[in-house]
Amino acid sequence: MSMSDTPSTQTVPSNGRPSLIVTLVAAAFFMENLDGTIIATALPQMAHSFGVHAVDLSIGITSYLLTLAVFIPISGWAADRFGVRNVFTAALAVFTLASVACGMTDGLVEFTAARVVQGIGGAMMVPVGRLAVLRATPKDDLMRAISIITWPGLVAPVIGPPLGGFITTYSSWRWIFYLNVPLGIVGMVLAWRFIRADRDTQKRPFDTLGFALCGVAGTAIMYAMELLGRSDAPWREALAFLAGGIAAGIAAFFHLRRDPHPVVDLSAFRVKTFAVAMGGGSLFRVSISAVPFLLPLMFQLGFGMNAFHSGLLTLVVFAGNLSMKLVTTPVMRRFGFRPVLLVNGALAALSIAAMSQLTAATPLVLMAVVLFASGLSRSLQFTAVNTLSFADVPKRQMSGASTLSSTLSQMTMGMGVALGAIAMRLAAWLHGHEAQSVTPADFSVAFLLVAAVGLVAIVDVFGLERDAGAHVSGHRRERT
């Protein structure tokens, strides 16, 4: 019997407080997403503290992201085995303690080890927190809940670098990690108080082989993408890791389909709306995740701006994200999932393409308009894709679907950064110069390539029914 065939416990908020759970999970997601990007601008100061070169500290980012990719697949099993409240609270505790350890380290080896432990905590927080929300929220309120818990994925990559730069400039890089402590403690108290303990748990065996295959596949593919994006990438090594990752992924797919108790339940892919959200939606996440990586580089290396001005312009995308949150639900209720994903998906791709036309001579007001429009469209698309993912998934399959969604989301975010780097390498090759040297024209080509990926992402949407997810968006009810 597969995981989808077993009864799932219902985790409901005590005292009827679903909004508090949604806010709590959104805050936890924000911490997890922020820690993936915030240290980028602190690397020089951290390198000085550790007595190493700044480039050597890239392992601090990579180790965190790779740990997330490896351990997210077991989060569903852990939640079913030990209970959502227990796992989510424990994940917050691990993440908080590891943050303290990161801030106290004085060497690269210890710091990397602390980041790995922090990644384990983050890997448990993301899907288990989402599962708590999905089980506690009625279908007709799912749009609002998903809209709230998805904003950290949009906001954190944008504000992470400038916030890290501010903390590093006016205090110490160690406070980047210490700031997680009060948030983590409050989160643990609220999680234990307001998420009701599961009435019973599923004592299914742990799928060791499935975990190993998923871990190897995720790690190898993400590492290969990172290698391909380096200016001095060893092509043979990168392709070898990519081939190995794909082979492990294929082996994992067949194993998970046959195993009676898979570490990741693939049955949710039989739900059309979930499959579309994971297919085209993953490509969309890859494309938008490349933008926060490319924009600061273009502003600083291409246009000659300083870090402060670059950060202020990047925050305009964040303003667009927040502004769209005010009208996301009415827009979805008026038009429904399919039209919004098609039209807005095209607009999101066009807004990225418009960035290719920016130059150092472009008026700042016009730059801000383009970035704000991009923030609007990507926020609406991000929320629509994430809500559609769970619109038709039965309660008994929520755990597996949440794990799948979190695994793919984390991998596509990492792949987005790699896509940006690969696009810059291709642009340098097209312009006939070395990848180490960057020209403004390279960014134009890179943004066009990223926009093309975003445009391909909407192809899947054409296969949706016209009223797909209407019971969640409210579109069908309003028409009748």
From TrEMBL:
Major localization listed first in the record, in broad terms: membrane
Transmembrane regions listed in the UniProt entry: 59-79, 86-109, 115-133, 145-163, 175-194, 206-225, 237-254, 274-295, 307-327, 339-358, 364-391, 412-431, 443-464
GO molecular function: transmembrane transporter activity
Membrane topology according to the record: Multi-pass membrane protein
Record's keyword terms, sorted: Cell membrane, Membrane, Transmembrane, Transmembrane helix, Transport
This protein's name: Drug resistance transporter, EmrB/QacA subfamily
SUPFAM superfamilies attached to this UniProt entry: MFS general substrate transporter
Segments forming domain Major facilitator superfamily (MFS) profile: 21-469
Presence of the UniProt keyword Magnesium in the record: no
Superkingdom of this protein's organism: Bacteria
Source organism (scientific name): Paraburkholderia phymatum (strain DSM 17167 / CIP 108236 / LMG 21445 / STM815)
Subcellular localization(s) per the UniProt record: Cell membrane
GO cellular component term of the entry, any: plasma membrane
Entry keyword Transmembrane: yes
Pfam families: MFS_1
